[in-house]
Amino acid sequence: MPVGYVGLGIMGAPMVRNLLRVGVPVHVWARRLEQAQRLVGDGAVPEESLASLVRTVRVLFLNVSDTPDVEGLMLDEGGIVANARSGLIVVDHSTIDPMRARHIAEKAREAGVIFIDAPVSGGERGAIEGTLTLMLGGPEADIDRIGPLLERVGRTLTRVGDSGAGQIAKACNQLIVGETLVAIGEAFALAEAAGVDPARVREALLGGLANSKVLQMHGQRLLDDDFVPGFMAHLHAKDMGIVANTAASLGLDLSGAERVRAALARALEHGHAYDDSTILARYCIPER
């Protein structure tokens, strides 16, 4: 039985190719036909409509930009829930509002559709190499059923809990990465102001408790002025909005999250929306 895929951008397209590479038949649909056609040479089968795609497959992957996109695909008239056969499993790799993910899952469940939130971390490189981290929320038995498919696109798969739990984990991920980038930006600024080479500071820190993947990868990006996007700044800003809204709905005041949002806002104001989100470290101090 073929699987379906909607969302064929910087993350979705290489994930589709990884499925095709191991012999999984993949049917695709995109509002922009050229996105689907680019995958035909890899073996993907384009569908003429979302409805025809939904009726063809038993597992459907989504990988789109934001909460309204997922809600529209799932719940709009003529969308996935309206056209699905009972038992369809929808795996959403998008990063969306956790509370809305729970709402979507409930509406899907009423129609006999299983909705699994499965946001990813690892960026474009992880998507290409099939080494993504997947944070999963949904029924354990259904996640286990599609485990062999998930293993084709990710290296680390963790069921965090019920519906929405994967999105909560992704929000935590974006918060930690963002605050770590702010800390690195401040550390490099401190070193420069004191007349010390930030590259040498980073080298020293890599051998101690401050070492992290963010310092390893994005610290070097900062030193190299390398902001070719793996994960774009405007998407990180969107994700930090999700963090802020979720925290507010739960009565939490996350001051660190607001500093990340402010740095990203300054980066976007200076024209860096489509640069890698590492750029936020350049704007963690307002006057920089």
From TrEMBL:
GO terms of biological process kind: organic acid catabolic process
Molecular function GO terms recorded: NAD binding; NADP binding; oxidoreductase activity
InterPro entries in the record: 3-OH-isobutyrate_DH-rel_CS (IPR002204), 6-PGluconate_DH-like_C_sf (IPR008927), 6PGD_dom2 (IPR013328), 6PGDH_NADP-bd (IPR006115), HIBADH-like_NADP-bd (IPR029154), HIBADH-related (IPR015815), NAD(P)-bd_dom_sf (IPR036291)
Nucleus as UniProt keyword: no
Active site: 170
Residue ranges occupied by any 3-hydroxyisobutyrate dehydrogenase-like NAD-binding domain in the UniProt entry: 164-283
Keyword entries, A-Z: NAD, Oxidoreductase
6-phosphogluconate dehydrogenase NADP-binding domain span: 3-161
Pfam families with a match to the protein in the record: NAD_binding_11 (PF14833), NAD_binding_2 (PF03446)
Family, per entry: Belongs to the HIBADH-related family.
UniProt-recorded name of the protein: Tartronate semialdehyde reductase
Annotated source species: Thioalkalivibrio paradoxus ARh 1
Organism phylogeny: Bacteria, Pseudomonadati, Pseudomonadota, Gammaproteobacteria, Chromatiales
